[in-house]
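User: Can you predict the 3D structure for this chain?
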Amino acid sequence: MAARKTTKPTGEKEKKKPVKRKTDKAYKFTKTGHRLTVKESRFIDLYLETGNGTQSVIDAGYKVNGPQNQAYQLLKKPHIAEEIRSRQEEMHSSKIASAQEVMEFFTRVMNGEIKDQFNLEAPLSERIKAGQELAKRTVDIENRLAGKADANVTISIDWKRDTEEKS
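Assistant: Here is the predicted structure, written as structure tokens:
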């Protein structure tokens, strides 16, 4: 038996698929409100990862003819350069310890709160070094602000105090 052809009722027209034009690009927006094409956004991601503009152009899907020139042209665009700078600042600020974090770390080491890989307290020499580093960042700065730039700071620990109080 032969297959039957099905036809649509005469009143319906076939729907045409939308034609994608070169001007119909998908965009991403930067934090500053600039539009980036998907390729530009991919280029920025790859460039931040590798630091190689030529390879980033190729991997982002741009035409391979003259990738060095294409990378140069992309990096010259103000909105792309601004986005790269912005993302680099975010990366640096999240990876670099703040002064407050450093001070808190030295304080925890000095107080014996931080343990090593064998779950042992830091040796006394390391605790003293942490105290000296704290002094450099607090006492020395306070003295410099007060006009005593060359003031010496001495830290002494009286180990006999505990034994004398008990007797």
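The chain has two domains: 27-95, 99-161. The longest strand covers residues 27-29.
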